[in-house]
Amino acid sequence: MARPPSRDKLSAIAESATVVFGRRGYRGTRMADVAAAAGVSSGSIFTYVESKEALFFLVFAAGFGVLDDPPLPVPTPAMAQTVALVRDQLQKAPVSGLKAALKRERPDDMAVELREIVEERYVFLEGVWPLLAVIERCAVEIPELEQFYFRRARVGYFGRLASYLEKRASAGYLRPMPDYAVAARVVSETIAWFAWHRREGRDAQLYSDDAARTTVISFICAALLPEGGT
Question: What CA–CA distances, in Å, run from 128 to 48, 89, 115, 199?
Fold first, then answer.
């Protein structure tokens, strides 16, 4: 009698697929490569996922923690279903500090408010960067994903952050900047490199996670707060 597929092995397949999709993109990912990385045979991987489309869906369902004990093999979804899953989960990204700050006319404590916003973004990217790597690498090949992620989600966050920086600088709480959209992008990309991109290359071990997190947060806050500002 054939042994039933292991749920633990499904997790290993999801982790391996996350790495391969993130490096090779959607079209460049082969089921055989994911199978080898996960320690299963090229044929037996189809006892866990029905197709590459199902494997792609599995990456996000497992990565976002919404897998909910699916039937095996995981069935093939429409790409729109996978994109909807990504959209729904990223729309839950924590931006409560930024949204709350935009609603306040003045901060109770400027340093505390700014630190909360920067730290919130850093911790979020630090937690989900492998999934974001898959999204960014594969979006060029999947128009629905590109439309949501690059034209809506990222643009929306950058816009909110730029509005916040301009609002607080105009009131004298932060340093004025020549262009607040550029300033928002500088803040975002600095966070992204240390929380995410350094992990994808040879710089991953140059800094400890704690040192990178605390230093980047302190650096950004010090750069934006005026001298003696609170």
Answer: 24, 11, 20, 12
Other residues' Cβ atoms within 10 Å of the Cβ of residue 111: 15
User: Which long-range contacts (C-beta less than 8 Å, at least 24 apart) are formed by 176-184?
Assistant: 184/158, 184/159
Please give the distance of CA 173 from its chain centroid, rounded to a whole number.
30
Buried b (16+ CB within 10 A) or exposed e, 199-217: beeeeeeeeeeeebbeebb
Question: Looking at residue 9, what DSSP letter applies?
Answer: H
Please choose, from the candidates 25, 34, 22, 51, the residue with its C-alpha nearest in 3D space to the C-alpha of residue 141: 25
Phi, psi of 74 (to 5 degrees): -60, 125
Distance CA 3, CA 1 (A): 6
CATH number for the domain running over 89-224: 1.10.357.10
Q: What does the pLDDT look like over 41-89, one tens digit per residue?
A: 999 999 999 999 999 999 999 999 998 888 899 999 999 999 999 999 9
CATH architecture group of domain 7-77: Orthogonal Bundle (1.10)
- The Cα–Cα gap between 206 and 31 comes to 33
What is the domain partition of the chain in residue ranges? 7-77, 89-224
How does pLDDT run across 145-157, given as a tens digit for each residue? 999 999 999 999 9
| Among 1, 32, 2, CA closest to 17 | 32
Amino acid at 3: R
